[in-house]
Structure formats: C-alpha cells, structure tokens
Amino acid sequence: MNTFQYSGADFYYNDQPMQILSGAIHYFRTVPEHWQDRLMKLKYCGLNTVETYIPWNFHEPKKGQFNFEGMADLVRFIELAGELKLHVIVRPSPYICAEWEFGGLPAWLLEDSDMRLRCYHKPFLDHVDDYYDELLPRLKPLLCTNGGPIIALQIENEYGSYGNDKPYLNHLKHAMISRGMDVLLFTSDGPEDAMLQGGMVDGVLATVNFGSRPKEAFDKLREYQPDAPIMCMEFWNGWFDHWHEEHHTRSAKDVAEVLDEMLAMNASVNFYMFHGGTNFGFYNGANGHTEDSYEPTVTSYDYDGLLNEYGEPTEKYFAVREVISKYIELEDCELPAPMLKKAYGRIDMVEQASLTDNLDRISTPVHCAYPETMEKLGQDYGFIHYRTFISGPRPKDEFFIQDLHDRALVYLNGQLAGVMDRSDASTRLEFEVPTGGMQVDILVENLGRVNYGPYMSDRKGITEGVRYGRQFLSGWTMHTLPLTNLSGLSFDTISNQQTEPSFYRGKWMVEELGDTILHLPGWTKGVVFINGFNVGRYWNVGPQETMYVPGPLLKQGENEIIIFELEGTTDRAVTFLD
C-alpha cells in the first residue's frame, strides 16, 4: 500500500516530500499503439506524473452500453504509465470540458426534455451513479492505496465557472468515497473569487487553472486555502483552435519563464496540454459563451503543446526540460526514435455515391408532423436529413429555420438554394413557390455540442421548427445519419455532376505502415473515413489545412478512403504527405 497526501505546504508520497510535475495526455485522443511513446517522452522531459480526463460519452455512448476497449481502454493506459514508474492523476466525468463534445456528457441525456445538467437533479445523478458503478471499480485496483499509480481524483471540473450547487458536488464526492476511492480528491477552478467559492468542496483540496501571472493566482488560492500545497492543475502552455480563426501559438520562452516562476515557489504543475492529440470522429466540442455565439473546435487538438499532434518534441519541450533541470537532477536519456512517417502520394477517387440515392440504404426514414431533434430520434453525432413539400403557387417569402443547430444546406427541388449557419444570423433565404409546389430538403450538420459555459443544453438539428413566411411547415420525413456504418452505400463510377453531398471512394496499396498527413486541396467541407475509421472533419475555411492519419489506422495491402463531401471539390483526388 502506498499513500499520497499533503501536510502544510507539501505533498508527500509514502512520507517523502513530492512536487508534482505532470503533463496531460488524453488516451482518447491518441491511438493505443502510440500511448507508450507519448508516455516515455513525458517521462524523459523530467515529469513524474501524467494526467488524463475520462469522457463519459466515450465510455457510455448509449445508455447502459459501455465501452472500455481499444482507444477506450483507460485501464491499459494507466497500467502503461505505472510500468514506466509514472504517477497518474485522473479527472473523471461527469463533466470534463476539454474542448470535447458536450464536455464529455453523453448526448442521450438530452433526449429527456426536462434534464438538468451538472446540478442536484435526481434523474441526472441517477445516470451518474450508474456510470460510476461501471467506471470506478475499474479504477480501484489502480489506486496508489492498492499498489497502483493513481494518486489523485478530481471531483467535477471548473465547476465554479458554471454553478454553485454544493449538494451536487458533495454527492459526487461521496459517490467516489463510497465506491472505494480512498486517494486524494481535488477540485480545479479559475483563480477568481466566484469560481473558487462555487467550486470548492469541504475536505477536498482546491487547485487552480491559469496560463500566466502565477503569483497572483496562487495568492488568490491561499486566501481560501492557506494551509495546503499550491498547484496549477492546468498550466495553459498553448491553446485550441476554432474554425475560421488563426492557429493559436505561444512561445517556448514565455512558457519556460512562467514555469520557472512556479517551480521557484515550490508549486506543483500540470501542463495542459503536454500532448494534445486529435479530435477523431465527431468528438470536437464548441464554445458558446452567449445565446447567439457558437464556435466549433477543429479536428486537430495540437494545442501548441510540448509534443505536437504527431507526437514529436517541440522547441517548447526542450525549453521546459531545461527549466526542470534547474530544480531536479535529470537522468541522461535518449528519446524514443521518431515514429515512421510515410508519403503515400496522390490517390484518385474513382467511385461516387450521392447522399440522395443512398438515404434509404444507410438510414431508416422517420415520419412526423414536425422536425425532431437528433436526440429525440436517438442520434448522437453526425448529420440529419429533413424533407417536406410546400404547395404552390406562392409569392416570394422568407424561409426560416427556427433555432438551427448547427449548419444546414437547403435544397429546393434538388438544387442548392443556400447555406444557413447558427453562427451567422445575417444569412437570409427568400424564394417563390411555383404552381406545382416545391420539395424542400435540409441537411443539418451537428458541428459539436457546446462544452463550456451556460449554454450546454445544446440539442442538435432543427430544435423548434421551419417556417415559410409566417407558416410553420409540417409533414416531415427524416433520416438520421450518424455515419457509423457506411457498408450500405452503393457506389458508381465517379460522375462529373457534383450538385449534392456525395461519398467518394478511393483505394491504394500500402507496403510499410507509417504516420501520414492527408492533404485535401480543392475539397470544401466534409468528413474522412480511413478503413472505416472516422478520422474527423475538414473545412477549407481554416486554420486546419491537413489531417493527421496515424499509421496504425492503415493496413498492409489494400486500404480504403471514403470522403463525405458536402459542397463539391475541384480535384477528385487527395494526397498523403509525410
């Protein structure tokens, strides 16, 4: 049995003083074949601890259906860290933020119109308890008190930025303790009065999150917790990106200077992020700080971290190691060899399957008087297709999608009439209806649920209704399109016509597996699948211009790429670069 606790201003591991030097690596943003490489590089940087969130939606995608295998095998990730003699800090759900879809909450919670999130609401807490019954017994053998590497667990996450429901926080605390979580429990919040007052829990260590001005942050923490160690649980050494923005960077020099200042105070530190990784699939989150704002996060979660998205050390990595070497003696060590990288060249797309022709092959239609949300139809991520008919003739009037979440392509009699986006209220669509009437098709993309702030009840699709002028339109046929199974698609020889969303397929031979970079010049917006794995979204608005494809997603012999392109391409080919 090992112990990790604190007394006065110091942490102690087995009664020996310990300063936590930690880095965040999210197992769910990195393929399992790369976990050991990333963990070894963390250790060689001079860190003694790895920190990870646990996203609830990754492990319970459907109510009562749990997944702890493959990329979801957090037990193996923690065991690997222990084998490398690293300590582990775990930050479990219910809520993690992390720029992750819905902050880690499962989408199926929103099927209940009365659901209240992150508070003492019994239906919500019942779901949390069911989840903890599955999750926490898996962590128990890995606790340091049972000889494992886990030294601490977080209760909620930055709760003071959201609420002040102490009975809720105490429920989570006791839910962990009653299930045998007998290690150090902690909270983390911004270093502000309201955040600390709302997020702290009696008998639980408080830590703070920030990117600069450490003395000011720790002084504020000491006002509320004078007799405890000081720790920055999230030292923001970089930042994340939204579509339509510039890529965020932070200089190695600036990060090193702030770190030096913290270590001189004997503060413990967790780098957020040490290695960011990738928002594979549809798991990127979004920011929505006001009722009218919406900013989805890109596929890459590079974060300008100490390791880049591909796992290679950056200038920041070596600057941090140099600062750490001023305070502790680091062993001479050799970094793991860089991962093999391959350029597979240009791959032509040779087959095409239009969405319209394949709707009934990959989805079962649902008929209803009004458009339903994804959640009401049992869908979590992806797209949803709506269709109705407007009788004619009618004079020109405005077409409204009331409370659209998030982006819609509108087709009138099969022709694209406009693109509507919740983040651009200025877009207007007007048309007249001919004598024979008009078929209306709307393809709505879920661009990622809000992961932070007061607008997290972010149901997707058409959440209220569709109007032509003053009249709500009824008689809808809906197809859910989570795109989890594309085996039903019927491909034909590629067509010169690109007037609607289509799937494009190409194949290529691989002799040697290596990490590679997918470049899509000429493509507009869509999703990429490699050998059935959803690599994520691309969009020509930037800042992300390429997609990282880890070598373990490939196989020796024939490989398949399918691209779901929404708005057309000028070059029906892609290029794999090194």
TrEMBL record:
Active site: 158, 234
UniProt key word Hydrolase: yes
Residue span(s) of domain Beta-galactosidase galactose-binding: 501-559
InterPro entries: B-gal_1-like (IPR026283), BetaGal1-like_ABD1 (IPR048912), BetaGal_gal-bd (IPR048913), Galactose-bd-like_sf (IPR008979), GH (IPR017853), Gly_Hdrlase_35_cat (IPR031330), Glyco_hydro_35_CS (IPR019801), Glycoside_Hdrlase_35 (IPR001944)
GO biological processes: carbohydrate metabolic process
Entry annotated with the keyword Hydrolase: yes
Domain of life from the UniProt record: Bacteria
Domain Glycoside hydrolase 35 catalytic: 11-326
Domain Beta-galactosidase 1-like first all-beta: 371-481
Keywords: Glycosidase, Hydrolase
Gene Ontology molecular-function annotations: beta-galactosidase activity
Family: Belongs to the glycosyl hydrolase 35 family.
Name this polypeptide is given: Beta-galactosidase
Lineage: Bacteria, Bacillati, Bacillota, Bacilli, Bacillales
